[in-house]
Amino acid sequence: MKVAVIGASGQLGQDVVSAFRAGQHQVAALTHGEIEISSLESVRQALGGIRPDVVVNTAAFHNVDKCESEEAQAFRVNSIGARYLAQATRELEAKLVHISTDYVFDGKKRSPYVEADTPHPLNVYGISKLAGEFFVRNGNPRHFVVRVSGIYGQHLCRAKGSPNFVETMLARGAKGETIRMVDDQFATPTPTVEIARQLVALAGSSEFGLYHATSEGSCSWYEFTRTIFALAGMKVEVQPIKSEQSGRAAIRPAYSVLENAELKKRSLNLFTHWRTGLESYIAARIPSIS
């Protein structure tokens, strides 16, 4: 397949590019300098020159707290950008793989969300991403809308200008800091390498639709943080706090665990348990822990 990956320099995008290339696919890795998804002209020009079979959109304005004060930009990228990609890929008769988020839910269900559950986002980021989902689902019938949760990978999160959550915790722990972490927010931390592998499998199929794509199981961010240090062999004090003590601008859902029901229904699910994914991640970077 000829594949165009948008957001190719990002944390997820780099692993997506690698996964498709490992499958011997021809990949055009598009960065923000090569395509501006909030411009239909830019989208048509960039994709028209490639004429891909599959477009994977990992680009997003996903600084959740900044979205609260920059609503217009959040909707330009996460909503209108998705609309333009759907429109352009339909014109090219290409498949569109669009990354969305667990934050489309409000967390009140308290059991894993399946694709059939009704979304109810709590913050601007979640609302803008949900709007983008609808644009994709209505704009190109050959779509895969893929919701992910708590992603982390080896590459820098360029949009946030910082390492992923795991690296941030390890760096703070190495400095001897006491970590204060919420114990009343639950999700499923998921490695980007596993998401990328799953996207390759989906893109090669014609099972179009909406999918949840996360590791198995769930944990609080407090439990996840403690497990990071335990697997890294580091003794770091981690104190549990409540969400209202975190001082963040955007409200987060207390429970945003996703169940990969549609992937399992189609025998396409490739994910391991969240702890297994973390073990592999830590093992791969253990020599660099100081």
Structure in words:
By secondary structure, the chain is an alpha/beta fold. It has helices at residues 11-22, 40-50, 64-69, 71-92, 124-139, 165-174, 192-203, 221-232, 261-265, 274-285; strands spanning 2-6, 26-30, 54-57, 95-101, 143-148, 151-152, 179-182, 186-187, 190-191, 209-212, 219-220, 238-241. It has a domain at 2-153 and 188-215 and 257-271: Rossmann fold (3-Layer(aba) Sandwich), CATH 3.40.50. It starts with a strand and ends in a 5-residue tail after the last helix.
CATH architectural label of the domain at 2-153 and 188-215 and 257-271:
3-Layer(aba) Sandwich
Specify the helix fraction band: 40-55%
Q: What's the total helix number?
A: 10
Find the structural class using helix and strand composition: alpha/beta
How would the blueprint of this fold be written?
Blueprint: E1 2-6, H1 11-22, E2 26-30, H2 40-50, E3 54-57, H3 64-69, H4 71-92, E4 95-101, H5 124-139, E5 143-148, E6 151-152, H6 165-174, E7 179-182, E8 186-187, E9 190-191, H7 192-203, E10 209-212, E11 219-220, H8 221-232, E12 238-241, H9 261-265, H10 274-285
Parallel strand pairs: 1-2, 1-3, 3-4, 4-5, 5-10, 6-9, 7-12
Antiparallel strand pairs: 8-11
Helix pairs in contact: 1-7, 2-4, 4-5, 6-8, 8-10
Which descriptors would you attach to this protein?
290 residues; alpha/beta; Rossmann fold; six-stranded parallel beta sheet; two-stranded parallel ribbon; globular
